[in-house]
Specification:
The chain has 11 helices and 15 strands. It has a single domain, classed as 3-Layer(aba) Sandwich (Beta-lactamase), CATH 3.40.710.10. Helix 1 runs antiparallel to helix 11 and helix 2 packs across helix 7. It is α+β, with helices and mostly antiparallel strands and 340 residues long. A hairpin with a 2-residue loop joins strand 11 and strand 12.
Length: 340
């Protein structure tokens, strides 16, 4: 399939899904350095009927974790921390069972930590805001799910601890450290820690689907996602990020190898989990990706190293099933280019 035909079919698919109310957001599809699709669909603001565009800024949810992992690796490269360090060395007053958890285990979700997202007090904090210590405190009395390093269980709590570590070892706030270490050097001018009090041009409003209608998303104080899901970005910036991280040597070779390694203890049906990145196979090709969902928003940032291909979907409609269908169909289109 030719690049022109891929772009034509992708745009037709996305236009159809947007008109049916199943997708809104921005999409970027690139292959071997050539951008095939770069468009916005649906409304960034429903009330004012302002359309989404490639310049629209979206909350990216857990796709933030790739940035958090890269920040940790930059600290390792600078000699500030070691991946085998125990988190208790850096963060005081943790439960006894947590103190021996290593940075590697937190990065790979193999520490055995439960996820505070499901804790009873979490919804109240969504409205009031919270310090990281309050978030991890929600599950401080819960036992570990398994002996550390023996299995994988996705835990936002582990990535909150990593954000606390970045602030401790980096001697700056999480937002400031990422700005200085990643966003500014890579000229990711639209990417930042989301601050709703800031007047931010071209910021999308978040929506959800309920009873067949579009509703405003529930409020979320952005102190709560923190280093597990607090960033806002655009498709253009995330393409630049994909290329810098996976193709252009933002990390030292040894660091990058550790980031995308297939650790045996992380193996599940969805593949492996490295440092802030899922590692899977699709039609025989490696896919390095992370998805994210946060009130009113859903995202996926995927990179296919054998093809130097990127697929980036950012949506301001939290409706996972049609979103996943769009991602799958666009992935098949991209991979059809590789297969000729």
């Amino acid at each position: 399939m030719t690049p022109y035909k891929i772009a034509t079919e992708a745009n037709a698919l996305l236009k159809s899904e947007a008109e049916a109310g199943r997708f809104r957001g921005a999409v970027l599809l690139a292959w071997e350095g050539e951008v095939l699709v770069r468009s916005g669909y649906g409304f960034a603001n429903e009330e004012w009927k302002i359309p989404n565009s490639p310049l629209t800024k979206f909350r990216i949810g857990s796709a933030t974790k790739t940035f958090t992992a890269a920040a940790i690796l930059r600290l390792v490269e600078a000699g500030g921390i070691d991946l085998d360090d125990h988190i208790g060395k850096w963060i005081a007053d943790l439960p006894q069972a947590w103190q021996g958890l290593t940075i590697h285990q937190l990065l790979t979700h193999t520490a055995g930590l439960r996820d505070h997202i499901a804790a009873p007090g979490k919804r109240k904090l969504n409205l009031t805001g919270a310090r990281p210590e309050e978030l991890v405190g929600l599950i401080a009395n819960e036992p570990l799910l398994f002996p550390p390093g023996t299995n994988r269980s996705y835990s936002n709590t582990g990535y909150i601890l990593l954000g606390m570590l970045i602030e401790k070892a980096g001697k700056a706030s999480y937002a400031r450290f990422l700005a200085d270490a990643i966003f500014q050097p890579l000229e990711l001018m639209a990417t930042r820690y989301d601050d709703p009090s800031e007047v931010l041009p071209e910021r999308a409003s978040g929506y959800m689907a309920r009873d067949g209608k579009v509703r405003n998303a529930e409020y979320l104080d952005m102190s709560v996602p923190f280093s597990a899901g607090g960033l806002v970005s655009t498709v253009d910036d995330l393409l630049r990020w994909n290329m810098a991280l996976h193709a252009n040597g933002f990390l030292k070779q040894g660091s990058y190898r550790r980031m995308i390694a297939e650790y045996p203890e992380t193996r599940k049906e969805d593949g492996h989990y490295g440092y802030g990145v899922f590692i899977s196979k699709r039609s025989g090709y490696t896919c390095l990706s992370h998805s994210g969902g946060v009130n009113g928003f859903i995202s996926v940032v995927a990179y296919y190293p054998e093809l130097r291909g990127s697929l980036i979907l950012l949506s301001n409609l939290l409706d996972p099933r049609p979103f996943s269908s769009v991602f799958d169909r666009l992935s098949d289109l991209l991979l059809s280019q590789a297969e000729g």
